[in-house]
Amino acid sequence: GGKIGITLNTDWAEPFSNSSENKAAAERNMMFQFGWFASPIFFGYYPEVMVQRVGSRLPKFTEAESKELKGPAPVPPSYPATFPVILRYIHVHK
Fold this sequence. Notes:
Elements: H1 20-43, H2 48-54, H3 63-69, H4 82-92
């Protein structure tokens, strides 16, 4: 038998400067680019910044859907070092 996995493509964002505005913009970009897909898969919810900014246009997960979505998934081999770091970052910034 084979295995089914997921590879998430994302653009990485770095702040233009050390200003809090630029840091926040880079973080938002990562949450919208990567967190949009990764957060529901691994945690069962969308990143908080997406919920705040998109509001009612963002689909809501029922508790059952959230439980069904989240769960263990293998770390994609294309980013073994950065993937766990990004997931921790998403989870901390909920």
